[in-house]
Design brief:
One of its GO terms (biological process) is DNA recombination. The chain is mainly alpha-helical. The chain has 13 helices and 5 strands. It has 2 domains: about 45 residues, no CATH class; about 160 residues, Intergrase catalytic core (hpI Integrase, Chain A). The strands form 2 sheets. It has a 3-stranded antiparallel beta sheet with strand order 1-2-3, with helices on one face. It has a two-stranded antiparallel ribbon with strand order 4-5.
Length: about 270
């Protein structure tokens, strides 16, 4: 059992007492004894992340997009959805819960970039929304902005509908060209499955190997790892909507050369 499990269980108990209209002072999870147990669990179990996946490299992302979408006009529509989704999640540092709130009517395209207003985001405490800015890429065939434009055009999406929609997976298995979007946001199991299939086709790794190395969070951490070396930390943290610096650092994987720079600076 991890500390995260202990903490979430405490949160669930607190929520149930709120529903029962128990006052803040009488809430059992606020009792000093319970707080002491939580602190003891933190010291004993630790805060180590479980099953942390690797960040996804840019080369793998772009290779996969080109293989999935060799032509924007003739490729299966569901492949275009996957390519646009993984590209947007990688460049926008989006979680799955961010991705499902990308609405077509709240996405605006400009000559230089795309702006997507997320009506809900994990750390948006006041529910005011958050705008994600994604610049147009130097390569049109892998640019997430161009992919999203093509998706909206081909699927004829408009108004209050999700940009990244799901579909009937059983029907698409045998006739991907005929698969139709279902009008609802892609559910998490399908999102995870499609990301794994995308990476299997790109890397040639087996169905069992890919989930051990990458997950949906690999898209967010992949973009974050690259950007962290090139932009100010303030912009980096704002783009990813991290509430604290410690949360943001979890998504950055420093390469060997960067780690070696510490001891090389010692001059021994």
């Amino acid at each position: 059992m991890s500390y995260a499990v202990v903490k979430s269980a405490s949160g669930a108990i607190y929520a149930l007492h709120q529903i029962a209209l128990v006052t803040e002072e009488d809430a059992p999870t606020k009792h000093p004894l319970v707080k002491g147990v939580r602190q003891a669990a933190k010291r004993r179990i630790g805060l180590k992340l479980q099953n942390q996946k690797d960040p996804l490299d840019l080369d793998i992302l772009q290779t996969g997009i080109v293989r999935y979408v060799p032509d924007l006009e003739t490729c299966p529509l569901i492949y275009l959805v996957v390519a646009a989704m993984v590209g947007t999640m990688w460049t926008g540092f989006l979680r799955y819960k961010d991705m499902k709130f990308v609405w077509v009517e709240l996405v605006n395209f400009f000559p230089t970039h795309m702006e997507a207003l997320l009506t809900e985001r994990k750390n948006d405490q006041f529910r005011e929304g958050d705008v994600v800015y994604i610049a147009r890429g130097t390569r049109r065939d892998t640019c997430p902005v161009a992919l999203c434009e093509a998706l909206i055009s081909r699927a004829r999406l408009s108004g209050s509908v999700n940009l990244f929609q799901g579909w009937d997976g059983r029907a698409a298995r045998f006739r991907p060209l005929e698969a139709q979007l279902n009008g609802r946001h892609m559910e998490y199991p399908q999102c995870r499955r499609e990301v794994h299939k995308f990476l299997q086709r790109t890397t040639g790794m087996s169905e069992a190997e890919v989930p051990k190395k990458w997950g949906t969070q690999s898209l967010r951490s992949g973009g974050a790892t690259v950007a962290a070396r090139k932009v100010s930390f303030r912009l980096f943290q704002q783009h990813g909507a991290w509430h604290t610096a410690s949360s943001a650092h979890r998504y950055i994987l420093d390469p060997t050369e960067t780690r070696l720079s510490v001891t090389r600076a010692l001059g021994y």
